Structure formats: structure tokens, C-alpha cells
Amino acid sequence: MAKPELIGILDDMNLQTMTQRTMLRINLQKQQKEAEEQITVLEGKLARTKEYLAKVEGGLDVLDELE
User: Fold this and answer.
1) Range(s) of the domain holding residue 50
2) Domain tally for the chain?
3) Over the stretch 39-48, which tens digit does the pLDDT of each residue have?
């Protein structure tokens, strides 16, 4: 004969779930901040690379005019 199962909700389990949800939120917010910081760094590198490209193109234009 199978034992009947007792299914219920404990207040402690709800508290644990909220804690896990809070920890997950904090972790995701930290990852979001890090990603935004990386984007800022990459945007700076991109701007410097664009400036360098403009100088290279300017140099090529000068060489073309000298021919």
C-alpha cells in the first residue's frame, strides 16, 4: 500500500526563493554594469581607430595628389 503524499507550502521556502531571486537580480545587474563599461571602452577604441583611419586616408590623398 502506497503512502499518501503531503504537499504543502512552507514560509521558509518562500523566503529562500525570494533570497535566490534577489541574488539573481543583483548578479544580473552586476553583469549589466560590466557589459555597459565594456561597451564604453570599445566605443573609445572605435573612436581612436576611426581617427587613425582618417589620418591614413589623408596620407593616401596626399600621395595621390603628388603623383
Assistant:
1) 31-67
2) 1
3) 999 999 999 9
